[in-house]
Structures are given as structure tokens and as C-alpha cells.
Amino acid sequence: MEIDEARSLAQALQRLLHRAATMIDESRPTPELVARVTGHVGCELKDLICVTQAFNVWEHASLQRGVDAYLAARGKADWFGVSGQGREHSDTIDILSTVARGFEAYEISAVDYATTAVGPDEMIEVVNFGLVQTSAPDGSPIVIVLRGPSERYGGTGCRVEVMAASRASATAAREEIERLTRRHDVLRGQILTFGVSEYMGNSLVTFLPRPSLAPEEVILPDGVLETIERHVVGIGRHAEALRARGQHLKRGLLLHGPPGTGKTHTVRYLMGRMPGVTVVVLAGTAVGSISDAAALARRLQPAIVVVEDVDLVAHDRRLSVEGSPLLFTLFDAMDGIGADADVTFVLTTNRADVLEEALANRPGRVDLAVEVPRPDARCRAALLRLYGGDLLPEADLEPLVARTEGMTASFFKELLRRAVLGALAADGAVDRLSAEHLSDALEEMLRGQEELTRTLLGAPQPMSRVAYGPDGLLPE
């Protein structure tokens, strides 16, 4: 009997405490932050629906423009923010619930803004944490929350949250915002590359200016540039006609040849020849972002994905016990884009002999390989004219052309700079280079102690013993 009485007493006390807590909660005024949301949506906090969609960190500006377009179609709307410690760690619905229970001091405050790039030389202001009252496509009231990345706290992306009394209304608004975000994507038609942020090693996208090169600035053997343009630019120009006739658009171009012969220069020319085409350039550590680059290219087509020095990733597995962990990532990226996608993979390498055979043994990976060789006499003369311009002497340049057999475009570029520096050092000014200025610069670059410089500029090796004799100078 005593046990039953004790149990009854405990249950009565429990009901009393629960009732007291309920009365206290009912008497406590609704916090302003909660009231601002629930009052607009028209439902209690416990009935509030929240639909969330995450985006990559580099999509923040596009998401902002998508939300702005959504709000612009529904009239003026005022943003407001939230202050309070630890808000970066919590979803907005959790913040509201915590405030409603009186556990944390989150309050309405000014909106958090940040700046982000939308081009090589343009920045815009974006909402980093803010809420705005508006309506869903069906006219019902909703609250949109825009939250940017918080990398210091492990948040590597941005997201939009839509709060409403109805899941259907929230979902419809979220879908419309996504559609507008894709429509106003700031990455479309840009030249991009991937970098690494200072927090957590997260990938970031950087904008690069679009080069502008004339055909005469690309010195290649006869017909080579035309072949490359037909494969990359020509297919893109006739994309719709090719699709209509059942022809695939995805293509792969491999530019191979010694260092300094103009492979990257040729790629830069292609970028300039295709304004409005999205280009993603992967070089060095950025190659690790090949999957993200392929996803961007597929979404933002027409697009080009450039992989510089692809031999560092796609070297033949027979030549290495470990192989490259990025090799199959590259294959997956190239194979995962549909054949009818207007996407070009442009690969460059100084070592075509060590490339993985699987790059070429499946259609659609690489369907055109072009050698960019060391310049012949005609090309060497053209390079002198390109880099020398009006500074070149009127005297015959044929002896200089003959003495630079095997040299690359990079070599000639440095040769002309040294000739100008020499002329400035000797005369204090230079309007035109003399044959002596050019000869002195060449002799300096052909000395034995410059062998490493010549190697870095793509000159054939060994030079001091084979081509130039024991003193490292070309014979007269």
C-alpha cells in the first residue's frame, strides 16, 4: 500500500510540475524572432515546415541572384538578420525552437553580408545570413533564409531554406529559386580555375580574364591551327546541325610536344576564339577538382575543360607500381559527360610517350592528337617578328634564324627581352634593336652556364656538347 501511495504522489507531482511549466510557457510572450516568422507564415512553430537545398561555395553569387530574381517577381521585400552566439552551427528552425524555449538569446539584428567575385574584376554583395518574408508561387506566405559558407566552423557550402505552413508551398518555392539560380549562374561563359581556401582545404573557384589572340600570334606549322580550330571551334559552331544528324559533340583534344613550343599558348587562343563558352582550367593542384570541373562543364555547356600536363595524372599504369589516384577520376569525368554534350576536353603534355593507353582506347576520350613541334625556320622567323615587332633591325635575320635551330617559342620570347635589356643597358634607350644586340643576347643564352635555362625554355638537350662544342657557343 505504501508503494502505491508513493507512486500516486509522484505522478501527481509530475502532473503539477508539467502544468506549472505549461502555464509559465503560455504566459511568456512569444520572442520577436519567432513571432516575425510564425506571424507571417500563419502557423505555430511546431507546425512550421522547412525545406532546405545546399549549394557549393562557389555558387553563392548565383544563388543570391536567383533569390533576388525570385523576390523581384513578388514585389519589395526587406531582409532581417539573426544575432546570437553559435548561430553558425544550427539550422534556422533549430534556432527558432531554442529561442521559443527561452534557452538561447538569439535576436533580430542586421543582415550579415559578404562580397564574392562574379568575374575577373567584378564583385557583388551577397547575404551571408538573412531572412526575408515573401510568398510561394501559389501565393501562400513563406520565409526564405539565405546562408553562406562558414568555413571556420566546417561549413563549406551555402544553402537556402524555405519555411512555410505547407510542404508543397515550400518545395515549389525552393524549386523556383533553384531554376532562377541556374538561369542567372554567374559562372556561365567565364574562364574558371579551382584553388584552395585557407580553411579546411576546401575548393574555391577563381575567375580568369579571357585572352584575345589573333591567328598570326599563334606560330605553328602550316595547317595545324586550322585542324585544331575545326575540331574544337567548328564542332561547337555546328552543334545543333550535328545533333540533328545523330552526331556526337563531346570531343577530346591532346596537344603534345616539347616544353615551350606553344601548347598553352594555343589553348589561350582557343579560349579567345570562343566567347561565351565556359572554360575550366585545371593545372597543378587544381587537377584534383576534375570531378567538380566536369560537373560544371556539363551544366554550363558549351564548355571546355583544360587539363594541363595531363601526364602527371594519366601516366601509363605499367610504368608505376602505385599509379595515379586521379587517373580513374579523370576517366570517370570524361566518360560521364553524355556524347551529345557540347563539352571539349583539351589535354596538354610534354610526355606523350608515358600517357596511359586507356586515354585513347575508348571513343570520346581523345579523338584528335596534335603535335606542337619545335619551330622550323619559317616559324622561327615568324616568332622573331612576333616578339620583336618594330624593334627588329632591318638587316637580314636569316643568320640568326639558322643559329637557333631547335629553339622553342619560349626561347625566342626570352631572347628578345634580353636583347632589349642589353640595348637599354648600353644606350639608355632603344627604338630599334641592332643585329649586334640580338647576337649578344643569343651568345649569352648559349653559354654553358645557361644550360638549365635553355632546358627550362624547352631547348633540346644536351646542347653544350652536341650542338655547340666545348665552349657552349654555336660555331660561326
Q: What's the CATH class of the largest domain, please?
A: Alpha Beta
Low-confidence stretches: 463-476
CATH topology assignment of the largest domain: Rossmann fold
Mean of all residue-level pLDDT scores:
83
Number of strands: 14
Please describe the biggest sheet, giving its number of strands, its sense, and whether it closes into a barrel. 7 strands, antiparallel
Question: In terms of structural class, how would the helical and strand content be classed?
Answer: alpha/beta
Residue fraction in strands: 15-25%
User: Architecture of the largest domain, according to CATH?
Assistant: 3-Layer(aba) Sandwich
Radius of gyration: 32 Å
List the helices and strands in order: HHEHEHEEEEEHEEHHEHEHEHEEHHHHH
SS field, number of helical segments: 15
Helix content: 25-40%
Distance between the first and last residues' Cα: 122 Å
CATH evolutionary superfamily of the largest domain: P-loop containing nucleotide triphosphate hydrolases
List the domain count as a whole number: 4
